[in-house]
Amino acid sequence: MTNMPHVKLGIVAVSRDCFPIELSTNRRKAVVAACQEKDIQIVEIPTTIENEKDVLQALKELEENQVNALVVYLGNFGPEGPETLLAQKFNKPTMFVAAAEESQDNLFNGRGDAYCGMLNASYSLGLRKLNPYIPEYPVGVPSEIADMIKDFTDIARVLLGLSALKIFSFGPRPQDFLACNAPIKPLFDLGVEIMENSELDLFESFNNHANDPRIPDLVHEMEQELDAGNNHPGILTKLAQYELTLLDWMENHLGASSYGIFANKCWPAFQTQFGFVPCYVNSRLAAKGIPVACETDIYGALSEYIVTCATGLPATLLDINNTVPQDMYQSNAIQFRNYQLTDLFMGFHCGNTPSCHLKDAEMKHQLIMHRLLEPEQDPNITRGTLEGTIKPGQITLFRLQSTADCQLKSYVAEGEVIDVDPKSFGGIGVFAVKEMGRFYRHVLIAKRFPHHAAIAFKAAGKTLFAVMKMLGVEDVSFNQPANMLYKDENPFK
Questions:
Q1: Which of 372, 365, 367, 328 has the alpha carbon at shortest distance from 346?
Q2: Partners of 430 in the β-ladder
Q3: 1-38: buried (b, 16+ CB within 10 Å) or exposed (e) per residue?
């Protein structure tokens, strides 16, 4: 995947001038060595900051090394003015961490007091209105600091990606899906660009790609991916034409941005005019790190991209769709032994999940659209879905959404896909999230989130929660345990 930034970390040590500078410098070297042992690439900046002139020199060294994510390391107490000035002037993703004391045998000349220094650093950060990443417990020995830096890499990738992102949307939201309401003002607050277009713009561009000489090679690529699951080979030429249309649109309209994603209207006129459903193309672009949200779900596309950057893996967008029947729960008691029935639901969409996340992926037709548009005849304009059972494993549900009055809110919930046949159509799987029933009622319903959730195919809650807080999203919900009531939950139930 190429549609995301490469994080280049740099570490700068800071030292209070009444402490030995060697203490901070040597501790920095130990952190770098620990990073190397864990295969974490990081640039060691030679200047240790004691004053503002050191800040200017360190900034020069950061720029020369093309560092785009900064670790400010308090090897001792640290000078709160210069160290926070560095973060302010660097103006890219930054984290603050501090050194723990190493041994009881060296607490006279070798005590750094960085535990105390972090308190002053936090106060100074507040004065400058900065919000860097500070781990849950930001003090540690070198190996522990290296693990914190590894976590920060994923966080920084998301922040860098958002700072250079453009969303392309095509067509207004369908009337029946006003739940995907998307006020665009909060996008600008996040630093995200958006280019809204008409479906006619997309249709014109698609028609201009007829007979594109690249189509045969792309069809061959699709044939190789689908293999035995290529049930509708006759539609591949149109799908390839459409994929090239989107990729060229992105390349030609990125402008000052570096990364692009899409939120496209995909029904009901799409099928009758384009002659196919776009789901398979959406799945292929998601696999390349270019999410394409259906139903013009702008914040769904944004959520998918955040997940993609946070995990380094393709994401998908699914409906939080339907309950698991009791007889399915009872007949799969072993697989569901850790869950109540209300912890389960089925995640579904027509066919936009990348093939790498599906078992036995097949090209099929969109059953619901076929009922509406082509009743009692063989599928034609409703061909183009990628269907299969979602592979079992860890997942994270995530969404960042704006309310109608332009307030950002979010949720994060970790769970898993269970290895149980969902016995239905589309890209679908049986999902398990602890206390999902309460989460569904008191977060998804009570806070009026739409039906689409971005799916990360690993446990990514720690990263996503930290990113939301760094972005200033105050309302970040999660699936609270049974002994932790939601604000509006009835205690007498």
A1: 328
A2: 346, 418
A3: eebbbebbbbbbbbbbeebbbebbbebbebbbebbeee
Question: What Cα–Cα distance (Å) separates residue 107 from each residue in 40, 98, 99, 491?
Answer: 30, 16, 13, 51
User: By CB neighbour count within 10 A (0-12 exposed, 13-18 middle, 19+ buried), where does 63 fall?
Assistant: exposed
Average pLDDT over residues 190-209: 97
- Please report the pLDDT score of residue 11 as a whole number: 98
- Name residue, tokens 């790190």: 289
Instruction: Name the nearest CA neighbour of 27 among 132, 145, 138, 153.
Output: 145
Q: How many C-beta neighbours within 10 Å does residue 359 have?
A: 13
Q: Give DSSP secondary structure letters for 350-398.
A: SS-S-GGGEEEEEEEE-HHHHHHHSTTS--STTEEEEEEEEPPEEEEEE
- 10 Å Cβ neighbour count for 190? 18
Q: Give every CB contact of residue 234 below 8 A, 6+ residues apart in sequence.
A: 383
Report domain extents, the chain.
9-162, 164-478
User: Judging by DSSP bridges, how do beta strands 344-349 and 475-478 pair with one another?
Assistant: unpaired
CA distance 286 to 152: 24
pLDDT of residue 264: 95
Q: Is the pLDDT of residue 117 over 90?
A: yes
pLDDT of residue 151 exceeding 90: yes
Residue 174 has pLDDT above 80, yes or no: no
Strand partners, 334: none
Query: Contact, 84 vs 130, CB < 8 A?
Result: yes
CATH 3.40.50.10940 fits 9-162, yes or no: yes
* % of the chain at pLDDT higher than 70: 99
Rounded to 5, what percent of the chain is helix, strand, coil? 40, 20, 35
Q: Is the pLDDT of residue 34 over 80?
A: yes
Residues β-bridged to residue 260: 166
d(CA 145, CA 160): 22
Does residue 388 contact residue 454 with C-beta atoms inside 8 Å?
A: no
| pLDDT tens-place string over residues 377-435 | 999 999 999 999 999 999 999 999 999 899 999 999 999 999 999 999 999 999 999 99
